[in-house]
Design goal:
Radius of gyration: 15 Å
Shape: globular
Number of domains: 1
Distance between the termini: 28 Å
Number of helices: 8
Number of strands: 2
Order of helices and strands: HHHHEEHHHH
Oligomer: single chain
Structural class: mainly alpha
Strand content: 5-15%
Largest sheet: 2 strands, antiparallel
Amino acid sequence: MEQSAKKRPEVDLLKTIPGFDTLSALMFIAEAGDINRFGSADQLAAYTGLVPRVYASRGNQRTGRITKQGPKHLQWILVQCAWAAIRTSPNLKRTFCTIGRKKSQKIAIVAVARKLATIAFHVLKANVPFDEGRLDAGLARAAF
């Protein structure tokens, strides 16, 4: 795996994100495929199935549980990365704790996993390493 990781520069970029290691980076690349096929981070998140269902009828709209559509291995590896990321990233831990107090830890870790997918999209699309300072500045939506 290390030899195949050396052939892919995307692996090094993904490893700059908290929670990602060589195996998880390779799995993300294998499951997500070419990142350029997604027009936005929201499309990647929808592909992973880590987004809420939307129930809409005649102007009324409400959200439910996550869709669980998409590659199961991708969902699994993002959740595992999220558990590792909340131990090393203060911003992701803050997100986890904030949502965890309001909802539950399971819902919170899925939210962090979706955030990691969004960060991975922006890192790969811009071809730049992850910078925790961008999350500190509250630029999570604009920068990552």
